[in-house]
Design a protein that fits this description.
24% of the residues lie in helices and 26% in strands. The chain is an alpha/beta fold.
């Protein structure tokens, strides 16, 4: 059954650009591509959630009265995204039955199924046909961010091949350690580094913007030491090929709903 989402105010005020020096000022404007497609990864069970995910995937666990995935969809919708691909797997029917084809959310929602849980690098390949030649947002289905961040990430500068969202003051041994240069361009990403092994304070926050060129790099992936095909390895290879991968520091609240303890804290607020 499709649930109607909370009402979202999409109104935006347009401020006209004025200058007495049109050429000198205009050359400072960065050309942007506004993204209108999003891919959401919602295939995993989330074994650390124990019995909470016995009958539904982790992205469908409720935080403050509604599924994590709905928080993400609503935030992206407010930023102008209306075309979604949700990649499902474990108890995928729970996601399909909740969101349907997106009609009563005012959206278009399609689905793909990850049959083998072999890593985030392989699962992204399932979005090739949906993406076509368009840039797209990708979000893990268990990441909550302040919705205002989506409005920045949907604007992808023409000079950039990708955007990687980052946070500080997080334990990089629990996720991706992101290395950047003085221009906040990504130079390396290392997945689940050991404590004391890295010299960066930037943590991969799990929301991205990509051009379709990312598929050239996911296609070349080899299994990591964990035996999985890691999306972060493809991003590292893209960045080290000389393409610009921009790091974007998220503002406001952020949460990786990784375990029952984090979930309990979120539901206290």
């Amino acid at each position: 059954m499709c649930r109607a989402p909370n009402e979202i105010d999409n109104a935006a005020a347009a401020i006209p650009f004025k200058t007495n020096r049109p050429y000198r000022d205009m050359v400072l404007i960065t050309v942007m591509a506004t993204i209108d497609k999003a891919v959401l990864l919602a295939a995993g069970r989330g074994t650390r959630m124990r019995q909470l995910t016995a009958d539904l995937p982790k992205p469908m666990i409720k935080v403050r009265g509604k599924p994590i995935l709905l928080h993400i969809v609503e935030g992206l919708q407010a930023a102008g995204i209306k075309d979604f691909l949700i990649i499902v797997g474990y108890h995928g029917d729970a996601v399909r039955n909740y969101f349907g084809d997106g009609t009563c959310f005012g959206l278009q929602i399609k689905y793909a199924t990850q049959v083998v849980q072999d890593g985030t690098g392989r699962v992204v390949d399932l979005a090739r046909d949906f993406v076509g030649q368009s840039p797209f947002i990708l979000s893990y289905g268990d990441i909550l961010v302040d919705p205002m961040n989506y409005k920045s990430i949907v604007d992808l500068a023409d000079a950039a091949e990708a955007i990687v969202s980052v946070k500080q003051n997080e334990d990089v041994s629990k996720g991706g350690a992101v290395f950047v240069n003085e221009r906040m361009e990504v130079t390396d990403i290392r997945e689940k580094s050991q404590p004391g092994e890295t010299t960066t304070t930037w943590y991969n926050a799990g929301v991205y913007a990509f051009r379709p060129s990312i598929f050239d790099w996911t296609a070349k992936l080899q299994p990591s030491p964990r035996g999985e095909y890691e999306l972060t390895d493809a991003i590292r290879d893209l960045a080290q090929s000389g393409r610009k991968v921009q790091a974007f520091e998220l503002e406001g609240a952020w949460a990786d709903v990784r375990d029952p303890e984090v979930l309990a804290q979120l539901n206290k607020k």
